[in-house]
Design brief:
It comes from Enterobacter sp. (strain 638). By secondary structure, the chain is α+β, with helices and mostly antiparallel strands. It contains five helices and twelve strands.
């Protein structure tokens, strides 16, 4: 596993949870994840849950993606999706506000891998370099992704060759993220 990426993700998650504690006096809350089983759930309330990150309990790889696409996935992406179970987190990098995607549960991990495969299949059809998304933006056409050829974190316009490099590595990117509540 890419320890640098795992540590950067854990550190950002701690910053995010600390910000929730400072602002709200609780662990992060989610209405979207209400009713969705996860080891992260601390408390279920009327229409929301409180969550805290939990250690990832499965094999720490996205091998299903590698097998399906016959590629080797960047080690940083393995670490990103298999370091922890957690809720998605709002974040800011430079002027970009995003939702950092996380694996919520064992079942969610399967769904995440299926979505990554679908993304890669589309890119292959369009003859685009392979990327693996890690965050969504308000614009449904843009995502934050890791280029699988060189490990750079990019802002990518889906279905096009438009890509802007944001950071040389996923660890660098995560270390620069600021929590947004």
């Amino acid at each position: 596993m890419d320890i640098e990426t795992a540590n950067a993700l854990t550190a950002f998650t701690a910053r995010y949870c600390d910000a929730w504690h400072e602002m709200n006096g609780t662990w992060p809350q989610s209405e979207e994840l209400y009713g969705v089983p996860s080891p992260c759930i601390i408390t279920t309330m009327d229409d929301k849950i409180l969550w805290q990150p939990q250690p990832f309990s499965l094999e720490q790889t996205v091998n299903a993606v590698e097998r399906a696409m016959d590629i080797v996935v960047q080690p940083a992406v393995h670490a990103f999706y298999t370091t922890q179970f957690a809720g998605d987190m709002q974040a800011r990098f430079a002027n970009e506000t995003m939702t950092l995607l996380q694996t919520w549960s064992e079942n969610d991990f399967q769904r995440v891998q299926e979505n990554l495969i679908g993304h890669l299949v589309t890119q292959k059809r369009l003859k685009l370099a392979p990327t693996l998304f890690i965050a969504t933006l308000d614009s449904e056409l843009d995502v934050i992704a890791v280029c699988n050829l060189n490990g750079e974190v990019i802002k990518e316009t889906l279905g096009t060759r438009k890509r802007d490099v944001l950071a040389p590595s996923l660890a660098d990117f995560l270390n620069q993220l600021e929590p947004v509540l």
